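Show me any protein, fold above all:
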Amino acid sequence: MYGNLELFIGGKWHGANGRKGEDVINPATEKPLARLPHASKADLDEALAAATKAFAVWRATSAYDRCKIMHKAADLMRERYDAISKIMVLEQGKPYPEARAEVVTSADIIDWYAEEGRRSYGRIVPGRGKGIRQLVIQEPIGVVAAFTPWNFPVLTPARKIGGALASGCSLILKASEETPGACVEMVRCFADAGLPAGVLNLVFGVPAEVSEYLMSKDAVRKISFTGSIPVGKHLAALAAKGMKRTTMELGGHSPVVVFADADPEKAADTIAAFKYRNAGQVCISPTRFYVQEDVYSRFLKRFTEYANGIKVGDGLEKGVTMGPMANARRIEAMEGFVNDAKGRGGKIETGGKRRGNQGYFYEPTVITEVPDDAKIMKNEPFGPLAPIVAFKTFDEVVERANSLEYGLAAYAFTTSNSTAAAIGDALESGMVGVNSIAISTPETPFGGVKESGHGSEGGIEGLGAYLVTKFISQG
């Protein structure tokens, strides 16, 4: 089921051939799946040269023709969804239905960008003098370097590929070394769809070495990064040296506010399902739960029941609803959060420990009675941990929800229209779901504020991230 892992540079696939590399590990078994080759500096130079040459070709290709190739790639992704999904489960761990949904949604992203690229409109501004014509046009920024994490091996690269290619840019993608296989197969769909050589290049390697090497090159004019805040800050500083445009989608620690007028059982069912998706390894996962006192006990009871009903196991097994953590680091992190919470008086309502001794499985966990200065209330857990605490007033919960440096996503539940409007305005977040968790679609902007980053993917904003504005005054 797991295919060969290769680099894709200048329209050609490159295997090990003496290159350094690393093993890709199945998180459900802790056994190696395949050997991943790393790009050498010569490989990166080849990718830069190929992307630079291809940019001249791709930017001159009409938006109509770019659209056709992208649609064909999306169609191939849908045709091959089963194989790609199974590869993703093997390397990342999420259950097969989640992997399948990710592949299909990623194809939708490519389709949406393909169409939106045909609507990269400029405008004519009336001149002040007779015979003066003033034009505002949008042009592709140039060669893009993109860096993506392991938690969504296809969807996150699809956002960057879609925006870059639809705008007329060429791209060098460094996807995650821990989950490379599904991305390799997605890139293969573009190659088989007839994308000109060099427009899309895929490399792997030691992350810091690859990113710093690519970002030091004048040919690269745009950086798109999804990952942690510390790494994002480092890359933003490197980009500033060359005045390179950046899109940074960094960490989150999403508050959930459940007001007393909400249906607590319905809210618990909705947000618990979202909490344990991909074992909580989602940047917009709900991670801090504030429930108004009047409905606290009902919400907690239903949420805990949901957590207890989750079937944990290998993502390819039928009926499994939560797979393993992606790697051993996540298990260690969960243990650190739980031990800190217990040390501060926290109560484990369910879960709280590793499951089994093979594979990186961790139990769906609910924690109560944790103070706001507990580690789990201040730092993104990125795992299946749900701290649930009570609050009294609107102003109190807004202050607590906005108290951190994060500002990626936030959620609220209420049946009051006035409260819905007020909380939507009050939460300091790039995305807010009020009685909804649908904050990530191809046609809507996805991005954060504060230290959760800047810029957006998705929507017209996602296309604009790869365009520069040119003004022409013609007499």
Q: What stands out?
A: The mean pLDDT is 97. The two ends are 63 Å apart (CA to CA). The domain at 254-441 is CATH 3.40.309.10 (Aldehyde Dehydrogenase; Chain A, domain 2).
